[in-house]
What we know:
Number of helices: 2
Distance between the termini: 57 Å
Low-confidence stretches: 1-28
Shape: globular
Order of helices and strands: HEEEEEEHEEE
Mean pLDDT: 83
Structural class: alpha+beta
Amino acid sequence: MKRQLLSFSKLTLLIVLVLMGSGCEEEANIPLLGIWKCKGFYTSNPESFKQIMPEDCKSCYTLELKSNGTVAGQTSTNEVMGFYEVNPSLKQISFTNFGGTEINELFDGRQYVEAILQVHSYQINDLGELLLFYANESQYLLFVAD
Length: 146
């Protein structure tokens, strides 16, 4: 009986380790993880690009997507945090409880926050840029890895 329990314990441990390992491997394959910096607002018309202002601010308009489902970042004037949910197979993403310090937004900060709150899907293009679609399928925020 003791020998069967020991074998069962080893089998259980092996299963747990395999499941934990596959979860980590899956996390590593999520290309969204990391720090992203927004470059501007786009629509499907390439001439509609609007550079996000101020463009020379190094810490403005950043998002850090963490493997635990949290997001942190910076708007034009505020530190922000919240949660995100992603469905990689459908390329869907949404942000919840997104907020932070409450200094009045400057430049494009208010428009940026409003867009983030409407994000529903994403795409990573051939250049490795992250497109976060909001409002409809033709409007998106363009991010580059930071």
